[in-house]
Amino acid sequence: MTATMTQPDQGAGTAVAGLPEGARPWQRPPEPRACRADGGHPRPAGRDRYTIGEVAEYTGLSAHTLRWYERIGLMPHVDRTHTGQRRFTNRDLDWLDLVAKLRLTGMPVADMVRYAELVREGESTFAERERLLTEHREDVRRRIAELHSTLDVLDYKIGIYADARRASGRA
Amino acid sequence: MTATMTQPDQGAGTAVAGLPEGARPWQRPPEPRACRADGGHPRPAGRDRYTIGEVAEYTGLSAHTLRWYERIGLMPHVDRTHTGQRRFTNRDLDWLDLVAKLRLTGMPVADMVRYAELVREGESTFAERERLLTEHREDVRRRIAELHSTLDVLDYKIGIYADARRASGRA
DNA sequence: TGCTTGCCTGGAGTGCACTCCAACTCTTTA
DNA sequence: TAAAGAGTTGGAGTGCACTCCAGGCAAGCA
After folding, report:
1. Measured between beta carbons, which residues in chain A are less than 8 angstroms from residue B35?
2. Bigger pLDDT: A19 or B158?
3. Which of B44, B45, B142, B37 minimizes the C-alpha distance to B99?
4. I want to staple A88 with a disulfide (CB 3.0 to 4.6 A). Which of A50, A95, B71, B82 is the partner?
5. Cα dihedral A61, A65, A67, A69 in deg (nearest 10)
């Protein structure tokens, strides 16, 4: 159950690499844009093994970034061929979809790594995962409200310039 | 006219310092949060000259950041005392309010510098300013839509965890 | 057999937006 | 008058999230 979106534990090792925790509180991470997040990858139905190049194409992330995600513990153990090449599954693509969504909201990579760790630890972390996502949802709601308030300022100023344009047009 | 919010030209020099233009298209700048943007500075009515420390307190920006803003051309020529200390005016505080709003929406500093340049150039740039803000407004609207769509995903996943919690509670 | 293409790794580099430092001057209070 | 505290500068440092590079391996094909 909760199949495509929870990614149960598959290998609990892979400690986090170089991610110092001291995020400045006022600073939001960059928001990736238009990473073909919706309408996304047209998975060739029936397959379940993709090269890193294919995944890069489907997700809009670079192969570099995919390898980096794995290195910092943001991917849940990717399969390898006997020669060591990565083979991503549909499950991995689902996970990357979720990651893309969370990145869109500006969730710091460190927080997503934390979430990925909880997923690896199994069902015992359901409550913690729910808490983490609920907190983040509040954050997103606040952000939406902020954006609406700046929209008001923009409307006001654009109105001033539009008025000036109309006035000079009439003059 | 359009007094407090347009900051007409006052000294056209101050070329931009070290701001390479090559912003990566997918990358949004960080969003400063809770910089007491609303409810803001309780300007002691009647005054019109503030030290950098006072402005830092009112705006929530650090003195470092205020000096840096001036250096890169994001401030419209700040007055000085005869010994060279900055004295900010209410007009400067208005400008910083606008800047704070634009930063909240994730407008890159380079774009705000561009806007500040247009303001310094005077009324002839009204049309360009209107265009710039209108474009940015579209951006903000898109971002709001994105956030709403991720909110749906969050709701869905939180629902799954909540269901699991309720189910295990019943079992 | 050689050539091309795609993948591998660790580590270094990039861009943005600050943030801090050293060494100094100016202002205010005791 | 002395000391504390706030201001000044240019330039270096920080944190995040990638992004790139060199040097090498493996598979497909003319």
Report:
1. 26
2. B158
3. B37
4. A50
5. -100
